[in-house]
Amino acid sequence: MEYVAFLIDFILHVDVHLETFVRNYGAWVYALLFLIVFTETGVVVMPFLPGDSLLFVVGALCGVGFMSFPIAVTVLLAAAILGDQCNYHIGRYFGPKVFQWEQSRYFNRRAFLQAHEFYERYGGITIVIARFMPFIRTFAPFVAGVAEMTRWKFSAYNVGGALVWVLGICTAGYFLGSMPFVKAHLDKIIWAMIFIPGLIVLGGAWQARRKAAAIVRG
User: Which of 21, 159, 135 is nearest to 80 (CA)?
Assistant: First the structure.
């Protein structure tokens, strides 16, 4: 329980914890950043680690001189790209084992072909948009691997999505993080960055379920 409490506190007060870490351990903060982002994007069972809020806070700390912006961005880009690639290959490894269950209601050959077709058609934009969606960000590359999305296509959109995600949010933090209003309400901004994308995902899933139910009834 102490570990869970610390994790929640770290997510909600990531600015305080990172600043303290920099003061105590200096350049080791870059190793910590790599570990957090790689684990969140590369290990399918760790989707609850901070992502968007972490990038924003890193940008803000770079803006006030606590860290080097070029080094931080390079480290975060490497972690994001390698994490998604790792997650994709995990899914690619387990996919054939999962979809060999021909009698399964959900994990059968037909379900695999549908998933594969979806990722071949829409996988690129899915990988990019998922970067900005907590939880979805962790599962999208894994599912892309399970569905055997073409390797080169996944890799291209993985790199492109990572560039947009890391550079976009870190740059926003760099220029906006030192503003008095942002500093005074940073905790609320972190909450918003966690919950608003999640609510959008839940709303989309609810609408899709309603449409599917209407088709079945009709």
Answer: 159
| pTM of the shown model | 0.78
Give the confidence band of 131 by pLDDT, cuts at 50, 70, 90: confident
The DSSP letter of residue 46 is: -
Residues 6+ away with beta carbon under 8 Å from 150: 120
Listing DSSP states for 156-169 in one string gives HHHHHHHHHHHHHH
pLDDT greater than 50 at residue 218 = yes
The span from the CA of 54 to the CA of 48, in Å, is: 12
Number of domains the chain is built from: 1
Domain residues for 187?
2-217
- Calpha distance 71→210 (Å, rounded): 46
Question: Residue 148: what pLDDT?
Answer: 84
Q: Is 191 exposed, middle or buried (0-12, 13-18, 19+ CB in 10 A)?
A: middle
